[in-house]
Design goal:
This protein is an alpha+beta fold. The protein contains 13 helices and 19 strands. Bound molecules: guanosine-5'-diphosphate and manganese (II) ion.
Length: about 375
């Protein structure tokens, strides 16, 4: 789950990172009022979960409240990279002398978090990484030891930060690490971290990505989810406790178990088909869950066939079969379904489905071929 700039920066500020004073506005009137309260020039910033808002015209400096009204009015009409701008952040404008990049993410290959800094801040860091990777200084963090002060000094030296800012830079890096760990984040990023005209460090932009699997530990953060970035089907799936990811193919997949779901997609591809989705309905799925999952799969008009791949361990296959039939009673559909059931009470389950004239298969390979053929029909 991505956090908006405003919440990310607020979170950073809780860990001692200096951020500009600012408030969220949903209308030009509110923007004007906030600008008046802040006094002086402000920056009007679209709150959408994509990078490069500046280039897209979603960030503008206003010299007075009237201009803030104008900019807010314009920016609130924008759609940036497909996302509508619903809110703007009105921040005290910073007097920017230098822009630095500072970010922490997981380095999966190293199996450790990595902190990165670059003197080439403000712009797209992926571009810097691509064209001039030597300009990004990296330091792996031992998850048990945490970020060490010699590491933040190495970063400061590596980006040629003036000596008198090292202390503050160290505090910010440490705060960012604490925010990262404390939020179960997979990314915590300040881009740019600016050096102001008065020679102070200030986090002008902030971005956090939280690990969805750890969100239950942060019930206070769930309310900051922006549903604009999620696909409707994925929102529905989350509500039913299903792991669902929409893909581009035409064969819907309903599987119990993430590993089995991956295998199912691989086998479909092996025989020349394309899966329409990844879906793990979990163990011991009830008929309500099966019904919800089927509804989500069929809401995709690309789906030409559905493949059920169920391994009954604790789950009994006859109960799953009843769930499928129950679900199909309410869901009128012409889409062909192929079911592969193995495990506890598989024979009973298959019989139930055969009686209801559904296609069943004994092996996954067979089921995949049948589903591909059915989709082509
Ligand atoms: P992004 O384009 O979505 O990454 O949004 P940012 O918040 O990083 O802003 C993009 C650029 O706008 C920054 O790199 C700055 O150059 C500029 N900018 C942002 N805030 C201010 C500000 O307070 N004052 C000034 N002068 N420029 C700003
Ligand atoms: Mn930025």
């Amino acid at each position: 789950m991505k956090l908006h700039e405003y919440y990310s920066k607020r979170r950073f500020s809780e860990y001692g990172i200096p951020i500009p004073k600012g408030e969220i506005a949903e209308t030009p009137q509110e923007a004007q009022k906030i600008a008046k309260e802040l006094g002086g020039s402000v920056v009007v910033k679209s709150q959408v979960l994509v990078g490069g808002r500046g280039k897209a015209g979603g960030i503008k400096v206003a010299k007075d409240p009237k201009e803030a009204f104008q900019h807010a009015e314009d920016i609130l009409k924008l759609t940036i990279k497909g996302l509508p701008v619903r809110k703007v952040l009105i921040d005290e404008a910073a007097d920017i002398k230098d822009e630095i990049y500072l970010g922490i993410t997981n380095d999966r290959a190293a199996r450790k978090p990595v902190i990165m800094a670059s003197a080439e801040g403000g712009i797209d860091i992926e571009e810097v990484a691509h064209k001039t990777p030597e300009k990004i200084i990296k330091c792996h963090i031992d998850p048990l030891m945490g970020l060490q002060s010699y590491q933040s000094r190495d970063l400061a030296a590596g980006i040629d930060l003036p000596r008198d800012l090292w202390r503050d830079f160290g505090k910010i890096a440490h705060g960012l690490w604490q925010a990262y760990v404390g939020s179960d984040a997979t990314l915590a990023e300040i881009n740019p971290l600016v050096v102001t005209g008065e020679g102070q460090l200030l986090a002008v932009d902030g971005k956090m990505v939280l690990d969805d699997n750890a969100l239950f530990r942060h019930p206070d953060l769930e309310k900051y989810r922006d549903l604009d970035v999620d696909k409707e089907a994925e929102i529905q799936a989350r509500e039913h406790g299903l792991s669902f990811i929409k893909l581009g193919g035409d064969i819907g997949c309903m599987v119990n178990g993430a590993g089995l779901a991956m295998t199912t997609m691989d086998i479909i591809k092996l025989f020349g088909g394309e899966p329409a989705n990844f879906l793990d309905i979990g163990g011991g799925a009830s008929s309500e869950k099966v019904a919800a999952a089927l509804e989500i799969i069929l809401s995709d008009s690309n789906v030409k066939a559905v493949l059920f791949n169920i391994f009954g361990g604790i789950t009994r296959c006859d109960l799953v079969a009843m769930g499928i039939l129950e679900a199909l009673k309410d869901l009128k559909t012409e889409v062909p379904m192929v079911v592969r059931l193995v495990g506890t009470n598989a024979a009973e389950g298959r019989q139930l489905l055969k009686d209801a004239s559904m296609e069943t298969a004994d092996t996954l390979a067979e089921a995949a071929k049948m589903a591909i053929a059915a989709a082509k029909r």
